[in-house]
Design a protein that fits this description.
mainly alpha
């Protein structure tokens, strides 16, 4: 009976250790994926930053043209 109990405990311990090994492998894989994903974040942020800068420049140009058009319309109305 003691021998059987020892065998059962050994089997249980073996299964626990195998599960732990699987978990460690999965955690390692997840860490690798996260690490590679996080490396691309600065590039993505810089691209977004550049896009925003370009949009701001375009908006400034549109604003200047709109102001000029407003003055032109006011002048043409006054000439009438």
């Amino acid at each position: 009976m003691v021998e059987t109990l020892g065998d059962e405990l050994r089997d249980i311990l073996t299964k626990i250790l195998e599960g732990q090994t699987k978990l460690e492998t999965e955690v390692g894989n997840i860490n690798t994926l996260l690490s590679s994903s996080l490396k691309s974040v600065p590039n993505d942020v810089m691209e977004i930053k550049q896009d925003i800068k370009e949009l701001k420049e375009r908006l400034d140009k549109v604003e200047k043209v709109t102001i000029q058009n407003t003055y032109d319309v006011a002048y043409l109305k006054s000439v009438k």
